Amino acid sequence: MPKNRNTPSPLSRWRRRVLSRAVHRGWAWVQEAGAVTAQHPGRLRFGRIGTGTRLAFPQGTVFGEPWIELGDHCVIGEQVTLTAGLMPDLDLGADPILTLGDGVVLGRGSHVVADTTVTIGSDTYCGPYVYVTSTNHSYDDPHEPVGKQWPRMEPVVIGPGCWIGTGAVILPGARLGRNVVVAAGAVVRGAVPDHAVVAGAPARVVRSWDPEKGWQPPLRTPAPVPIPEGVTPEQLLAVADLADGGASRTDDGDAPRMDGDSSRVTG
């Protein structure tokens, strides 16, 4: 049987594996070295960057850093844009323009554009590609291109504990209360009360919390059961192993183990 020219030789496969490992290791080093933290801010000089806060590499567009304040333990994903002011190198005064509270998470590719004040409360999580802006184009003059007309600006406030789904857009003037859920792809404007779920474009309230009746309309799924206190990662893995009939065991028959920091599983 003739040899298939498209089949790589063992030497070629070995070279490709070595090259692939080298590229991945190199990229991991670049990501670690390029990440921005309080200890290693690089070229960025934020008004404040809190303890434990990290901007993943590569960063998106970032300017107006002196008027951007980031709380403690924030997680800023790759290619996230953070801007204060209409353009770089403006003097925006003494007060911060863009403020993130403690524990804010911004998913990959998200944009927070703060031409006037934008405040995101503590422990608010944003999925990937969320767009938050305090500026909108105006189109008052029908004879002038929209992009050349002076934009309208309104402050944006997102309360603490919110969840903003993938691809959601938060428009100028939006005021979200505490623990608001914004569905993926929703377009939010105006005021949203505490403990509400909004969806659609434009977004509307589809579920809300009543102190006496609970969630209205009622939730369709049961509440998650919290893990009892004192349960170790090893015990959880053992339960999972029993549930799947041993499928989570490694090839050598040993159950996987969890490192002491409980953050990853090793074989």
Notable characteristics:
267 residues; nine-stranded mixed sheet; 2 helices; 2 domains; 26 strands; seven-stranded parallel sheet; 26% strand; alpha/beta; UDP N-Acetylglucosamine Acyltransferase, domain 1; 13% helix; single chain
What does this structure look like?
With 267 residues, the chain is an alpha/beta fold. The protein has two domains: 25-216, Hexapeptide repeat proteins (UDP N-Acetylglucosamine Acyltransferase, domain 1, 3 Solenoid); 233-266, no CATH class. It has two helices and 26 strands. The protein has helices at residues 10-34, 233-243; strands at residues 48-49, 54-55, 62-63, 68-70, 75-76, 81-84, 98-100, 105-106, 111-114, 118-120, 125-126, 131-133, 135-136, 152-153, 156-158, 163-164, 169-170, 175-176, 181-182, 187-188, 191-192, 196-199, 204-210, 214-216, 257-258, 265-266. Strands 2-5-8-11-16-19-22-23-24 form a nine-stranded mixed sheet, with no helix packed on it. The longest helix is centred in the first third of the chain and has 25 residues, at 10-34. The radius of gyration is 24 Å and the shape is globular. The two termini are 41 Å apart. Residues 241-267 are annotated as: Disordered.
In terms of quaternary structure, what is this? single chain
In DSSP terms (H or I, runs of 4 or more residues), the helix count works out at 2
Beta-strand segment tally: 26
Shape: globular
Let me know the average pLDDT.
87
Strand content: 25-35%
Poorly predicted ranges: 248-267
Tally of structural domains: 2
C-alpha termini separation = 41 Å
The CATH class name of the largest domain reads Mainly Beta
Tell me the helix content: 10-25%
CATH topology of the largest domain: UDP N-Acetylglucosamine Acyltransferase, domain 1
Radius of gyration: 24 Å
Level-2 CATH architecture of the largest domain: 3 Solenoid
Strand order of the largest sheet: 2-5-8-11-16-19-22-23-24
Fourth-level CATH superfamily of the largest domain: Hexapeptide repeat proteins
SSE class: alpha/beta
